[in-house]
Specification:
Number of helices: 8
Distance between the termini: 27 Å
Structural class: mainly alpha
Number of strands: 0
Radius of gyration: 18 Å
Mean pLDDT: 93
Strand content: under 5%
Helix content: over 70%
Oligomer: single chain
Keywords: Membrane, Transmembrane, Transmembrane helix
Length: 213
């Protein structure tokens, strides 16, 4: 599996575009909530993506000049950050926007920093990875890698909610406002959904097709 010059150029463009968008979105988030922005999975996943995209753009430029491929660890970071962004995007679409009520999709996907953090960055990162960053091929176990940042964030947010240092910031972390079994159900759904996203993105990136039975 080799990456063509056109794919490398398009990859560089997409990653630099995400960096540009983040330069717009980050000041908006900071102006809105300040340091509190770091309590949101959305903000943290987009900051992670910023690092991964910067590394991928630089590595692709080097690969374009040498005719080689990007290092596997750079591809792994881009894969992990893309999966985190897709978890953000799908959580907004299927959980947060419906909870928000009328106008939820418009507000959470198309206004302020959320236009970039909830919609544009996840979509462009996904298509960039799947279409233009197919090499080097990642091993099957890579689908487990993305669970690490998600687990770390979830554990920290849960601990701070238990200690009443933090409330939320998402409805499923408000453990004192819901039965224990509901919190456990949310954990299963979110972690299971995260793993499913990781597997799907990995298959699309590697070109692997599930075997028919």
């Amino acid at each position: 599996m080799r990456t063509t010059k056109l794919q490398k150029l398009l990859s560089i463009f997409c990653n630099l575009l995400i960096l540009y968008w983040e330069s717009i979105a980050l000041p908006i988030s900071w102006e809105g909530v300040g340091m509190e922005m770091f309590t949101f999975y959305t903000e943290n996943s987009n900051l992670f993506s910023t690092l991964a995209c910067a590394l991928m753009a630089a590595a692709q430029i080097g690969a374009l000049l040498t005719g080689g491929e990007v290092p596997r660890w750079v591809k792994t970071l881009k894969y992990m950050s893309t999966c985190c962004l897709m978890l953000t995007f799908l959580t907004v679409v299927f959980v947060l926007a419906p909870i928000y009520g009328p106008g939820g999709y418009y507000v959470l996907l198309l206004t302020g920093s959320m236009l970039y953090h909830h919609f544009l960055n996840p979509v462009v990162s996904f298509f960039s990875l799947v279409l233009f960053e197919r090499a080097p091929r990642l091993p099957r176990r890579a689908a487990l890698y993305d669970l690490v940042p998600t687990l770390l964030y979830g554990a920290a947010a849960l601990a701070m909610n238990l200690a009443r240092v933090l409330e939320g910031p998402y409805p499923f972390f408000k453990i004192y406002e819901q039965p224990v079994w509901v919190s456990c159900l949310w954990a299963v759904v979110l972690l299971g959904g995260s793993f499913l996203i990781d597997r799907i993105v990995w298959r699309l990136n590697t070109g692997k097709v599930p075997a028919r039975t």
